Each structure stands twice: as structure tokens, then as C-alpha cells.
């Protein structure tokens, strides 16, 4: 060992650490499967951070271990170490390297964020109303947008409307196009309610067609909840009094968990549901079956504290979705004119 | 080279026949001596640490199975809330700032006491009632809305308990404001004239930065909590969405304090690190100025990163990006400190005392916690893992690895000064080994849980996560066991440990020039500073001439 010059050892160690870091960055297997267009963006970003992180980890921890072995007090040696107080160039070096890394990560995260659709919130958010139960938008399942807003609806008294200002909107590819399918998502203790404004369907799980541009308009009934599908890498709080949105394209048929990640009470942990990603044909079948089932209608109930209701009791009034729709259309109409 | 003393012309005033050492009952009184207050803080904090730790064990026990088996989910949330609250407000802050700050600051700057001794005692005595209120709240179900107490949940769940929780936090907040004023004045005004600013020990710089930060941010938290209190009890609607209130404003008020609060917790620990490492590595601290300034930089930038806790909340795109950048920037001064400590090890003669083991343990774990923190700081990735076990893993690496290890290091280092007796080293090593293994076993797997899909603050979870959770639970038991050798060590050494000399570690800061334990007024004659706090290896005849032979890698 003595004969090998230090610079060569450093070089070898550097190459080794680089190789290990790249390998770990690609093979850590820590993330669940990818099922949305956003997922690969987030994952690549994470992999880059894991790569850099592994490198830094090995260098710093390696130095610590090396130093505590090499510079341990030997038996009987009561003397002090070398009085080095600092080194300006070294300090500049280790301030600027992390600075460059974090600025790089900052820029990268802006790029990822923009590709995810973070900057274009509700291009069609005018559709949304402050309360999710009265939200409405375009026809589902069809790329050719069929606006439902009817000019013939009479405006009722103006209601404050606010488009979702928070969340993830259309990706740059989707641009200003309206989403293919809009679903109103309501969080309440301890369930998620999914309402399809155009089909009058209300369900306890989310059903979406694969490959279609889906817009969730999220709101909360009682306390803050947070909508998360780990396989989509997307999360957005459901905030009482405000609507938020998540827009995504599911890329892989399957059934994935919907998780509530904001503490919402004792049974927060049980507030779980599912998102079923169908093939387009399957989705149409699901849509039609449910439309027929729910058309039989459930009587509209008067307002009760949703906390006292079981999810199915709570769901009942929502089944009568058409009435809700016309109100919403009215208020939207007044907003736009 | 040791301290020289001021020659005094007149014979010193005849010391009163006061006892030189405090009696045990003095520690239960309204004593104004900074050393007594420091010990009061430390011991009280440790009691709360045990209480908070028991709650954690109860939670981990519950989480060893996916279903809520033996804790009612509401009780689980009460434990979760109070565990976090106790650990932050009644363990780390009081022990690091109150305990070590009070005991050490006057000694380190060469003062006889804090600037306002009575205020100091008042600040301490606000803590026990605060803790009592918190425990009392369990009679009313216990606060259940998390340590963040986000409305509307905190408005509708267990209102009496939540009110008691608020009062408790306001008391500790008041205590921390009073304490901070005292520290700032003491450091600025009472430093012995012979000590240059560049000779101020880094622990003092850290406490100075911490105190400034506490003064700027604590009132904002108090404001948010008082508004919450009014909403709960007096019918106002600041945060009630159905009555025109805004729930997101609370989050801004809360995090404007509570993110800086993580620096309140960690900066004093950084200070402890900067004292312990040079002494036991027998080297000057590497980059004194860089470490001192980086405390101030963290203090300033730390005020502009709070929204990173709210990326998934009501946060417009520009804010997500702005706070991503500012959060990432805090990583730089933090890194500067870490590199400084690592470089301090280089070329040293490292003594593996228990204090040093914990300091090195902290260093190695803070690297993991810091890297995890950087990933969380980026909005696009945080959207995936926010409010999951990934975050729990991260903040326990920084909080447990970062703070608790630092406090242990400080206790092993200053115990001889505080009590006049040495701690038992073999027992200390057992304590370290258990703590180190336990921390990794408990918190490392949590990162994976979060990435895979397990949310935080849940009493029940998807059965697919059972195995990893059981690993964490085993780790928690190792951690619980690790407290036993420590407690035995402290109690036994305090009563009958080996008597310590005034300066058992051959350290150069001023506190080691007093007797162990220090006299009531600290010094008979105030010391004169003749050298910097970290000049190890200098003026040391045996090392002269050896400098060229500095070890090379
Ligand atoms: C200095 C010591 C630190 C402490 C004591 C600390 C503590 C914490 C705590 C308690 C939380 C949990 C918040 C909650 O209840 O939701 C948290 C989250 C977070 N920490 Fe740290 N942290 C530290 C360092 C860092 C660093 C260095 C960074 C970044 C460079 C960072 C970035 C974050 C972020 C972004 C979150 C929010 C994650 C989320 O909720 O999604 N932290 N930290
Ligand atoms: Cu929820
Ligand atoms: Cu929840």
C-alpha cells in the first residue's frame, strides 16, 4: 500500500464511489410501480437525488470512518493533534460544491414540476365551484370535448365561484385543452366520494380509463384530507372551503390504493379507497352499468352532519346528481357571462 | 497552557459562609443560580423524555400489527400528538437551550451568573406547569390533532384537551422568549473584557443565533395558537371554513414558527458538537469562522423555508418553487458545519470517550437525515412522500440522531463539571451501542414504508407493510432498553462515581477553569482569557517540530 501514491488511491476511490452511486441510483427498488404520466418524471428525479446522495454519503461517511481509524489515540500517546485551524480554499470548495448541487437540483425540480403540469392550474378551472358537490365539466371518455354548459340555463343568484388555485394542472403537452374526464372528489371523515358530474354517477372508488386525461376537482366536507395515489406519485390536500385539483393520465390498467395522508381524526388510517384504471372499453361498460343502477334514484335527504353518517348514508343524496348539476351550471353560467 | 488570574490588590471580599455545593433540596426551590436552573431544566427534560418515550413505545407496539388492536385509535392519536409535543417542547428545547445554555453560557463567557437571574428562574418554572397541563389533558381525551394542530380538526376534536394543549404550548413559548432575552443580553454584555469575539466558544455563537431566532418566531406561533383558542372557545372563526375563516392561514402561522423551531432544536446541538469534538480529538475546530457564520446563515435563511411543510396544501405554484429553492439553500451552511467537524477529526488524536462516540454517531446520522431533508425540500418529490413515513424517518434521523445524540454527548462531556464526578465509561459504551443500533433499526426502514405508500399518523395500515413495521418496533424496544444503562450510569455516578478533577479532559474553554462542580459565584476571581477556546496542539512543547511530520493520507 505504501508505494501507491495518494492521488492514485483517491482516483480509484472516486471511480468506485461514482460507479456504486450510479448503480444504487438505478437499482434501489424503493418506489412502487409507475402508473401515471407524472410517475416517471418524479422517479427519474428521485433516482438522480439517490445517485448524488449515495455519492455524498459514501464520501462523508467514508471520511468519518477512515479518520476515526487512522487518527485514533494510540496507547500511551497523550499528545495533541496537529493544530490546523482551517483552510480557506478547502472551505470555498466544500461550500461551492454543495451550492452547485443544490442549485442544479433546484433547476431540475422546476423542470420536473413544469412537466408534471404544476404551472398550468385549471386552464378550465372556470368550471369549478367552491363546493365540489356542485362541480361540473365536460363529457367523459371522449377526447372530443362536448361542453355541457347550456346557454339556456337561467342564472340564479350569483354564487362566489373560485377555480382551483392549487394542485397539479395540465401538462405542457395537454396545453389549454380541457380534460377528457372530470371527477369531483370529496373527502369526508373517513371516506372518499367520487362524483362523475356528467354521468350522474357517485361511487366510493375512483374509476378512470387508461390513457385519458383525467382532472380531479378535490374538496373536503369537514376537515383537511389529502388525496394520494402512491403509484401516480401525486398528492394534493383536500381543503375545506377551497377546491384543489390533480390532473393526470393513468398509464397502466390495474387497481391502486387511494390513501388519505392528512390526519383527519381517529380513523384516518382507515380512510383508504381504490382507483381502478380500466381499458377504455371496460370503462364504458362500468359507466353504463352504474348510470343505470343509479338512475333508479334515491330520495334527496336534508342536510345532516356527515360525521354522523355511514359512508353509504352519506352517499345517498349525491346519487341524485342531476339536480345538483343544473344548479352548478346555473352558477357557472352567471360567472362567465 | 492554562488560564492566568487577575492579580487582585485588595484581598478578595471574605466569601460568605455559604455552602460551596448545593444540597439536593435546593434543586426543588426557586433558586436563581444559573447552574441550579440548568440542572433543573436537564432533569425535568429527562423526565419528560421518559414519558414521551413510553408513549412512543406504546405506539410502536400498536403498529406491530396492521389493525388497531389494543389502543383505541383516538387514544393512539392522543399519544402521537403528545409524544411529538413533549419531545419538541419539553425535551429537546428545554434540555439543549435551557439546560446546557443555562449551565454553560455564564461559565463560558466568564460571568458570575445570567444577566437576569430571577427572570431565568421564572422561565424555568413555567415548564413544570406546562407539562402538567399537557398530561392533565388526557383526562379530557388528550389533544388529538397532531403537534401541528391543524384546524378544522383541532377545532372539532376534544376541545378541552386541545385548549389545555394550547395553554401548555403558550407557557413553554413564554419560557423560551424569557430565556432567549436573557441569553442574548448575557452573551452581548457580560463576556469578560479580555475575551475577543473571535474567542467566543462556538456554543455561545449557537445559543446567540438560537435566541435571536426564538425571539423572532415564537410570537408568531403564540399568535396562531391564541387565534385557535378563540375559535375553539369563544366563537370566533379565524380558521373555520364554513364561517369565512381560512384553514391555510393557520398553517402559515404555525410553520413560520415551527420550521425555525427545528433549527432552535438543532443549533444548540451543533454548538455542543463544536465543543465536544475538538476536545476529544485534541485538535482546533476546523473553520471557526465558517461554523460561527453558518449558524447565523441558518438562522436567517431558516426564516424563509417554512412553506416546504405545506407543498401539498393550499400552496400556489410560485410558492412551491420559491420555497424549494430556499430550502435547498439551507443545506449549504448545514453542510459547511458537517465538513468542518469531519475535518476536525483529520490529524487528531481521537479519544473514544462516550461523549466522543455520541458526537461521531450524531455526525454519521445527520448525514443521512440531511440528505433525506434535501430530497424532501424539492416540491415535485415531496408531493409523493409528504405526510408519509418517509418524513417520519427523515425527521427522526435529524431529531433523534441529531439532537438526542448531541444531548447525550453533552451530558457525558460536562457531567464531571456539573457534578464533580466522572461517569462510567464502559456503561457509556453500552449505552451508545444500543442507541446507535436502535436508532437505525427503528428509523431507517421507515423511509421505505413511506416511499411504498404508508401514510403517517395512522393507527392502522395496509397489511402489506407489516414486516417492515415489526422491524421498526423491535428497534424501538432496543432504543427503550438503551435508556436503562444511561439512567443507571447517571444516578450511580452522581452518588458515588470517581471524583473528577477541575479539567478532566484538558479542555481550553473557560468553564473548565472553575472547580468541579463550580462554586456558587463560579470563580473567586474572574478569569483572564489568554488564548482561544480551541488551541489544542499549540504551545505544546512535545509537538513542536512534529508539525512537518503531520500525518498524510
Ligand atoms: C436541522 C434539523 C432538522 C429538524 C429538527 C427537522 C425536523 C423536521 C420535522 C419535525 C418535520 C416533520 C413535519 C411534520 O410534522 O409534518 C420535518 C419535515 C421536513 N423537513 Fe426537516 N428537519 C431538519 C432538517 C431539515 C433539513 C436540513 C431539510 C432540508 C434541507 C429539511 C427539510 C424538511 C422538509 C422539506 C420537511 C417537510 C416534509 C413534508 O412534510 O413533506 N429538514 N423536519
Ligand atoms: Cu382523511
Ligand atoms: Cu386522513
Output the structural class of chain B. mainly alpha
The oligomeric status of these chains comes to: heterodimer
- Structure summary, number of beta strands of chain A: 11
Helix content of chain B: 55-70%
Helix content of chain A: 25-40%
Biggest interface, chains and residues, is: A-B, 85 and 103 residues
Order of helices and strands of chain A: HHHEEEEEEEEEEEHHH
Count the E strands of chain B.
2
Largest sheet of chain B: 2 strands, antiparallel
How would the global form of chain B be characterised?
A: globular
Task: Indicate the mean pLDDT of chain A.
Answer: 76
- Estimate the mean pLDDT confidence of chain B: 87
SS field, number of helical segments of chain A: 6
Would you mind describing this structure in some detail?
The complex is a heterodimer of chains A (337) and B (553). Chain A has 337 residues and is α/β, with parallel strands linked by helices. Chain A is 37% helix and 18% strand. Chain A has helices at residues 6-27, 38-70, 88-116, 280-295, 311-319, 321-336; strands at residues 166-168, 181-188, 191-196, 201-203, 206-209, 213-220, 225-229, 234-238, 244-249, 254-260, 272-278. A six-stranded mixed β-sheet of chain A has the order 1-9-6-2-3-4. In chain A, strands 5-11-10-7-8 form a five-stranded mixed β-sheet. In chain A, helix 1 runs antiparallel to helix 2 (38-70). Chain B has 553 residues and is mostly helical. Chain B is built from 15 helices and two strands. A two-stranded antiparallel ribbon of chain B has the order 1-2. Chain B starts with a strand and ends in a 25-residue tail after the last strand. Mean pLDDT of chain B is 87; it is low at 1-13 and 540-553. The structure holds protoporphyrin IX containing FE and copper (II) ion (2 copies). The site of one copper (II) ion (CU) has 7 residues of chain A, from loops. One copper (II) ion is lined by residues 225, 260, 262-264, 268, 271 of chain A.
